[in-house]
Structure formats: C-alpha cells, structure tokens
C-alpha cells in the first residue's frame, strides 16, 4: 500500500541518484524497524505496568531517543520521493519552469540546513562522548542517540542537493 503512494515517482536512473535512493531507502527501512521496536517496547512496558506493576525502566528515555533517530533517518527518503509537504497556494498558477526554479531553491536551502545540522550534531556527539554525558534512569550514553542523526542529516543534504539539481535540469528543458 505504501508503494502506491509513490507509484508516480520514477526512481533515479543515474548512478548518483540510484546510490542516494538505495541508501535513503535503507535508512527508511531502519527507521521503520526502529518504530516497530519502539511500539513493541511500549506495549511491553504498558502491559508490565498494568498487570504486573513492573514497567520497563527508562521506557520514556528510550522512546525519546529512538523517536528522534527514527524521524531523522526517514527524512532522506522523504526528500528523494519528494514527499515533504508543499504548500502551493501561491505557486499553483506559476509556470512549471518557475515552480521548478523555486523547488530547486527550496532544495538548496534544505541542503544548507541539513549539512549544518549534520555538522553540529556530529560535533555534539563527540562532545557528549568525551564528557560521558548519560541519560538519567538507564545511564545510557547520550551520544548514542545523536550518532545516527549526523549521517542521516548528511544524507538528507545530499538528497536535497540531488533533487535540487533535478529541478534545475527540469527547468532547463
């Protein structure tokens, strides 16, 4: 059923596009698996709390960390299939070429912010690791939650650059 939502979206045929598409799909699958694990963990904790008075200790910490990672890992795929929300109220009457240029500018802006976030999150990961920062209940190292986000935002930046370039190429045609 999810494939039907992206059926009209052609997969890239060039080498860079295929690589970015494949890696972003892998990240999205990992994101989905993480969400399933999180749901199972929550069910376990709720059942344990309700029936045995033994919830999973630190479930809120784990859900918080896993949610952030899952969301960031899904973003590159969303960019590759052009699945981000677009409010075209002001651009619906524009020529396709104008919209392609605006989409390319938006993708460039997204790439700039994604690369900046990748850089800062990576720096934060190393600082958290060096400072031995940990969660309150489980004493999990904080950098574990940040480490997967750096590559995810970097991949998002690469995907945004690629899709932006595709918009520029489409505007020239």
What does it look like?
- The chain has one domain (14-172).
- It has helices spanning 2-5, 15-51, 59-80, 96-130, 143-146, 149-172.
- The chain is elongated, with a radius of gyration of 20 Å.
- It is built from six helices and no strands.
- Helix content is 73%, strand content 0%.
Q: Can you tag this structure with a few keywords?
A:
173 residues, 6 helices
What's the end-to-end separation, in Å? 33 Å
Number of strands: 0
Give the overall shape: elongated
What structural class do helix, strand and pairing data support? mainly alpha
The biggest beta sheet, please?
none
Multimerization status: single chain
From the alpha-carbon coordinates, what is the Rg to the nearest angstrom? 20 Å
Helix content: over 70%
Q: Treating each run of at least 4 consecutive H or I residues as one helix, how many helices?
A: 6
What's the mean pLDDT score?
A: 90
Task: Sum this structure up briefly.
The protein has 173 residues and is mainly alpha-helical. The protein has one domain. Helix content is 73%, strand content 0%.
How are the SSEs ordered, and which strands pair?
Layout: H1 2-5, H2 15-51, H3 59-80, H4 96-130, H5 143-146, H6 149-172
Helix pairs in contact: 2-3, 2-6, 3-6, 4-6
């Amino acid at each position: 059923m999810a494939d039907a939502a992206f059926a009209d979206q052609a997969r890239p045929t060039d080498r860079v596009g295929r690589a970015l598409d494949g890696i972003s799909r892998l990240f999205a699958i990992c994101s989905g698996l993480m969400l399933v694990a999180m749901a199972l963990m929550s069910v376990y904790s709720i059942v344990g709390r309700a029936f045995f008075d033994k919830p999973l200790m630190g479930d809120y910490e784990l859900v918080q960390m896993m949610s952030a990672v899952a969301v960031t890992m899904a973003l590159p795929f969303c960019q590759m299939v052009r699945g981000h929300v677009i409010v075209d109220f002001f651009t619906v009457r524009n020529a396709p070429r104008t919209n392609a240029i605006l989409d390319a500018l938006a993708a460039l802006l997204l790439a700039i912010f994604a690369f900046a976030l990748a850089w800062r999150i990576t720096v934060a990961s190393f600082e958290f690791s060096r400072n031995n920062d940990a969660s309150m209940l489980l004493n999990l190292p904080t950098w574990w939650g940040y480490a997967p986000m750096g590559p995810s935002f970097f991949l998002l930046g690469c995907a945004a650059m690629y899709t932006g370039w595709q918009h520029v190429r489409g505007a020239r045609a």
